[in-house]
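Posting here for the record, re: glycine.
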Amino acid sequence: MKLLIVGSGGREHALAWKIKQSEYVKELYAAPGNGGILDVAECVNIPADDIRQLATFVEKKGIDLTIVGPEIPLSLGIVDYFNKRRLNIFGPSQAAARIESSKVFAKRFMRSYDIPTASFVTFDRVEDALEFVHSRDERLVVKADGLAAGKGTIIANNEDEAETAIKRMMIERFWGDAGKKIVIEKYLEGVEASVLAFTDGENVLPLLPVQDYKRAYDNNKGPNTGGMGSVSPHPVVDKNLLQEITDTILLPTISGLRREGNPFKGILYAGLIVQPDRSVKVIEFNCRFGDPETQAFIPLMKSDLIEVILYTIEERLDEAEVLWYDKKAVTVMLASGGYPKKYKKGFEITGLKEAADMESVHIFHSGTLRRNGAYITNGGRVLGVTAVGDNYNEAFNRSYRAVDMINFERMTYRTDIGLEFIKGGV
Ligand code: AMP
Ligand code: GLY
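Prediction output follows.
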């Protein structure tokens, strides 16, 4: 088969690395790809959201299957458009992708189908939102309705912070039209977990649960980012809890979407909070593979990824299974100093080869380009360093040993990815 991966991040590099090993795949392309993806795929310079140009490329090259990484093309309807042109593609339709692209839709959907989530109110008038927060004396979470690259959620510790968040979204339009409507919800205490699953519209097949580290700095301080690291499998989400999540969250979501005439095919990603009493609530849904989650679980996957994707597309997911190595993975993201706010790019990266040559270490590129044989920083999140080990301790130590070998100007990273899961300290 000839395959195209759409996207340019660490998630797409991890997918490309895995897909390259599939016995089904003869040729692999990425659009637009990045400096690291170049090592495993032919990169073509088409932006991930240029749906028409992507379809034309696929027709011209005779590509058999397209796999979409980011949410933007999915929310723009790449799957519907490809299907119209009779091109094979893996991902949800535009209507099903609303589970991620509109938080108002997602929250109302959850309420209709009794899917556990934080209690909430939605607003499309700024005065109403302000009046609501003035009547409350508790920590609240303010969320822009639309896509905001993972940054449209603000945790407001008091009335003033809630007011600032509402004004930033609805008046200053910090995230453009994404802030036309907002959701305000109850703040939930607990441990976060990402549970991703293949779904063919009817069946679900969960992947290994992952812990994502969203905050910029150690000890979960600082602003939210796209994700600064991840650990898989998630130590808190054991087999029993995963089954409960499948029964009470994943399956009802898939059957609800099907009942509404928008069956969801692809990867359903549930961002969850496991509360102190172990009850689980949905924080958000995404309609795609997560990043950096994918960088952590992909090296643990024994099965052929393409085979599972084909079962999903053919709506035969009940016949598929995914096998995993009995190991742990820790992914540390190396970012440009300043991220998630302003940062500089264009710095040369050193030590990559030495780090990548380490046993059980995988370096996935998030924001790099290649110039005259050198790797250059080209984004906020630059590299993901994943190490696999027999236990969290081994994976943690290995990952940070590899991190120590890599350098670029203003490189920054968290030093505590997976630390809380290491018994007896490092
Ligand atoms: P979201 O944009 O909905 O994924 O939220 C981004 C991050 O904000 C989540 O990963 C959580 O860390 C935090 N968050 C969102 N909603 C809540 C909530 N209701 N209670 C506590 N934390 C939340
Ligand atoms: N790691 C969070 C996301 O992929 O949205």
